[in-house]
Amino acid sequence: xxxxxxxxxxxxxxxxxxxxxxxxxxxxxxxxxxxxxxxxxxxxxxxxxxxxxxxxxxxxxxxxxxxxxxxxxxxxxxxxxxxxxxxxxxxxxxxxxxxxxxxxxxxxxxxxxxxxxxxxxxxxxxxxxxxxxxxxxxxxxxxxxxxxxxxxxxxxxxxxxxxxxxxxxxxxxxxxxxxxxxxxxxxxxxxxxxxxxxxxxxxxxxxxxxxxxxxxxxxxxxxxxxxxxxxxxxxxxxxxxxxxxxxxxxxxxxxxxxxxxxxxxxxxxxx
Amino acid sequence: xxxxxxxxxxxxxxxxxxxxxxxxxxxxxxxxxxxxxxxxxxxxxxxxxxxxxxxxxxxxxxxxxxxxxxxxxxxxxxxxxxxxxxxxxxxxxxxxxxxxxxxxxxxxxxxxxxxxxxxxxxxxxxxxxxxxxxxxxxxxxxxxxxxxxxxxxxxxxxxxxxxxxxxxxxxxxxxxxxxxxxxxxxxxxxxxxxxxxxxxxxxxxxxxxxxxxxxxxxxxxxxxxxxxxxxxxxxxxxxxxxxxxxxxxxxxxxxxxxxxxxxxxxxxxxxxxxxxxxxxxxxxxxxxxxxxxxx
Amino acid sequence: xxxxxxxxxxxxxxxxxxxxxxxxxxxxxxxxxxxxxxxxxxxxxxxxxxxxxxxxxxxxxxxxxxxxxxxxxxxxxxxxxxxxxxxxxxxxxxxxxxxxxxxxxxxxxxxxxxxxxxxxxxxxxxxxxxxxxxxxxxxxxxxxxxxxxxxxxxxxxxxxxxxxxxxxxxxxxxxxxxxxxxxxxxxxxxxxxxxxxxxxxxxxxxxxxxxxxxxxxxxxxxxxxxxxxxxxxxxxxxxxxxxxxxxxxxxxxxxxxxxxxxxxxxxxxxxxxxxxxxxxxxxxxxxxxxxxxxxxxxxxxxxxxxxxxxxxxxxxxxxxxxxxxxxxxxxxxxxxxxxxxxxxxxxxxxxxxxxxxxxxxxxxxxxx
Lengths: 271, 295, 368
Fold this sequence. Notes:
heterotrimer; B: mainly alpha; MetI-like fold; two-stranded antiparallel sheet; 13 helices; 2 strands; disordered C terminus; C: alpha+beta; Rossmann fold; CATH 2.40.50.100; 2 domains; 6-stranded mixed beta sheet; disordered N terminus
């Protein structure tokens, strides 16, 4: 269906587009194996920066904290977001549905500085009124991350549920399964690819977030992006390249596995 | 399916209350504090209701913060800059993203999943690190300049970093996947027999693109543009790391007011005006265009 | 066959059931009795309320008024998962993450039946639908026809008092559909469960069901055996919906001894028909099936109803040929002639004059 000039134009643009997307990442990885401290001058292969990275306590502590926060907040966001997605897909009419829909989707586009500032002011106000949460730290970061990532989970779950054949649930009811059982035996297994995707998405967003975290974190809770940011502000550092390489490798492996799993699930035709 | 009324109410109430408390109420507080005045202390602002100069309890709302934002050219310029950069980068995203999305949507079915994954993959890797990668590429003695000098194309390094060019580039790069996904979703839905029908009726492929494909992908274009434009306006990391003194954006000004000047009321007023001037109109526009599902 | 079963009370009684959606009555004050062991079809065009009625029997919709009694028990407060009713869904609704065997066993597991009992009953019912070999497959690995049979087995295995079938053959192609009809009847005879089928396909309803209810915009307009509904349609709608028909609008001019003369617009002679005594001047429609019209080139002797027209089209349909004849009034009439007759007798070709005649018993007099 592609004739003439477009037969060349579109593939060429795709090639350039993918180069644009991957060029910077490839350069990061290449120079993480550079022996020179100057990130941009090639001086031979070395894994020196990796060993240095593994002895950098500040980064390691922050990374562990970030992973912990990401795992907990993604799980919380999964529960809340699944509920929200379920409500959006199934409960067409209830009081305040319009507001609910906007509240769920707004965080997807809300500038992070606004979300961060407003959450911080909430925590400060709550503390002065009811004395909770005391100060800011892991708890406030968790709440903030759950709030902005639940939107992503909700959208993924809602999309899956909207494409879901309702007669599957009716069939289960018809065959004698009670509503709660239907949810756990039929609905949940069938939307599990969306749940996996939603959890991974929430996990990554949480692991990655700098702006909102900076607003709501306390002195004792420095996350990985905050460490990276302050180090990057001082200039490029090969250790960050090494860290980036590890992150990219991990993400690639996880995403490839997850999409493989999901693909095999998708191949089942919607009965 | 008919669950118990109580169960249904609980399913709605849990996320509803959570979002009310942690998403809506905070905006009300931002609005409130934007009318307060800066004070030394913790928290660093005056209460809105309290004793006035005569010692009577009264409402102490002050428009001083908004007056400051309106009067100081710095803020106005940051606003205009934000709109300019966001609009320019949105157009760049569209120009790069459309052929990509089109190519993926028209690729053989077996390839589409892989190509789409390749688009999403960078999005899963740390955003901060992807911005950081550009510093190494764009620096005065960075990879691109070194390459150009080595090739003998230029004598002195080009100023690529800490200017408007770098900000456009960073914004485009970071938000590109958000543009491609809705475009792809729309283009993939396009029935290829429509193009065959157009060809059959004597419309050459180049014109079929403008007359059939493009109009039918408008909802995807609208969704993609709004999805990248709004967060770009409030962007902080990119102007901070890649920008320079003349590329001030409102997100960075807000950050500096808050963290550097510790002026919470002015930061709040900036947030409110960003919401009122950009986010709310855009959100309404988005609803109006019905630009498909978010993401 | 009126009400089958043990005599006395009907097995399923639907009493004045009404269901409104956004103010519009999808099912309007419907009453219906169905006997034990019947194969009953709810027939009607899409949007006539037949599926809504079926979903109320299954318990997915709650009637706004009226009652549903199964074997004497009121179903009003019984949720779908406690009803002695199983449904075969139009989409089949097979659980894609379970094998054929566990799909079929799902309902028995909900009832906490012992494991070995489930195993025997599942394999028995799978054999009944000839799906025993595929017990360990997933629905995604089955063809459309195989999935249909699994869906049937899953609904049968609990031996429900009512088995509801929602357009059971809609997703099959034509040839398979015809085979499946006989298969359904065979299975129904074997298991003796009461089947209630929803369909928009009159041929499907006529060939499978022992009784048919024809529905139109939320109301049941006629209930009867397929023969009754076809031969004695109660209304113009039924006559038109089931099979092909020629409808003539006219007025009664004379009525005596169970026969009426009806003067029809554009025809010089009144049409003679059998029917209930109607007052002269009553507006009626006459429904005449195309196969009851005799088409001849020469004027037949002694026919009670006779008109002349010009043949405009002949459609060859294998066993039959359908003729379109224009009367002098420009009204088009359809007549079907078995091809054995057509090849034997003198041929009437397109453009030629032809005589149409029919007996007094052929037209059905309809007042609504």
